Amino acid sequence: MHKLEVYRANGGYEALQKVLNEYQPGEVIDIVKASGLRGRGGAGFPTGLKWSFIPKAPGEKYIVVNSDESEMGTFKDRELLEKNPHQVIEGAMIAAYAIGAKQIYNYMRGEFMGIGQHFEEALKACYDAGILGDNIFGTDFSCRMYGYYGAGAYICGEETALLSSLQGDLGQPWSKPPFPAIEGLYKKPTVVNNTETLANVPPIITNGADWYKSIGTAQSPGPKIVCLSGHVNNPGNYEVEMGMTFHELVYGENYGGGIRGGKKFKALLPSGGSGPVVKEDALKAPITYEGLTPYGSTVGSASVVVMDETTDMVWAALKMVHFFKHESCGKCTPCREGTFWMERLLHRIYEGHGTEQDLEVLQSVATQIKGKTLCALGEFAVNPVLSTIRHFFDEYKAKVQGGQKKVAAKTAVPTPTD
Amino acid sequence: MLLQEKYPEEIKGILARFPHKKSAVLPLMHLAQEAYGFTSREAMQEVAQILDLDPTHVLSLAGFYTLYYEEPVGKFVLEVCNDLACALRGADEFVQMASRKLDIPVDGTTNDGLFTLKTVMCLAACDRAPMLQCNLKFEEHLDEAKFDALISRLRAEAAAEKAEPSIVEQISAFAK
Questions:
Q1: Pick from B47, B69, B91: which residue ends a domain?
Q2: Which residues on A lie below 8 Å from B59 (Cβ)?
Q3: Domain assignment present for B167
Q4: pLDDT digit string (tens) for A209-241?
């Protein structure tokens, strides 16, 4: 499917042709709005609505594909770009036509340079076939698309940090407003869409908004690629109809196939390190944007990390906080300092040198970060801490009580560094 | 002037992709690292000069982004993901094994200058853990035997002085 001739033999670029020949840009936005497609990068923002924020006046505009995929446990965009790059390209081009952009950048994380070859070859095939370039399919529409490779920074998945990075600056977010729809790349109106989101667009155009809405649930229509990892028998990417339960995902024979080694389920992270951890009761929840609200969590980018009964939850929290501390861009103080101290405290508690007071300070630091950071990274960083304390307080208690030393650490832990 | 001597066409092609040349800084830094081996002061100064940027700015980018190496590294940089999802499938034990076999600590380089071992954050291949990237090429579903085979293969490659273009060079060539 990564080859142009195979993609076209399967109806590829027919949606683009249809759009260019039959629809006005505004009509394309209306179809995507009517489909109910929501952003697949994690925030779930309605895609058509995002496109409609772009000013109608002519001028330079940009589509930027967010392929910075760096959330722990997320690996869907990587497989899409590797196996089906043309569907992403076609979706991005339809978006470009809808908002009046002539230039598209696909911002991939630097680590994707290996699979980027497939993407670059796909682009080249498009240019050679006249699908990218001037007067596409003999119409007035001209569009160019380029791959761009970051250099290792989780924060660049945040849209304003991504745009800063693409402009050649440090990958640090800016305070919104201005929103990218008004002042984005090079201060021009810009839509930043996740890779998977754009891959949903061609089938919506081909089959119509009603067809799309017939899949999934009323509030979360469509299919979703779920990344399943951790202690399951069959980790991998699964495209599921929204509304399927987490139980089916973990235990279904066509999906996770149950817990590895016949062990018992303990907990699950529904959205990588960013969303609060949930327990077994949440397995009956549907995989939708709203499904985990009663359990105090969110599906995010649907990066499901499963943990079995042997998992030390303080260790898991430490691993995640180490990630956020490492990836904090350093621009705002609550996130930079807060993640630093949370890691120190967690490390001490995990090592068995923590006190009851450390546990209180840890909670206090986490609570004080919340709501005070420039972007979502800081907000996310407190989730592993507060949610594991909420659900597995006993494990924290056991570590701070009785001067317990080193708890059967079978695994190396990151040592905090200054 | 190593960068401009080695990759003149690539630089031209990369610059043509952006309305503002400052955007070319990360791609040129990737290439400069290829040419100079790491993001040395000299390398970053050359990038700054091509793009009319303050060298301090380019150096600050080298410090910010983790794929730029501010110190010399081995011919093969082995970056193992040991984030939570990979650790649940044995990545921490894998790092210890790799460290023992190469006889270097994490962030160390072997005496022959062939291998540098690092641990990194999520590489988006959690379903194929333990895994690593070697000079940006993903090696997945690893275990001790596969690691041994990988190291033997890389040693043989180095001995044969096979000079296949690196992944950065291959990607940059698309801009030509």
A1: B69
A2: none
A3: no
A4: 999 999 999 999 999 999 999 999 999 999 999
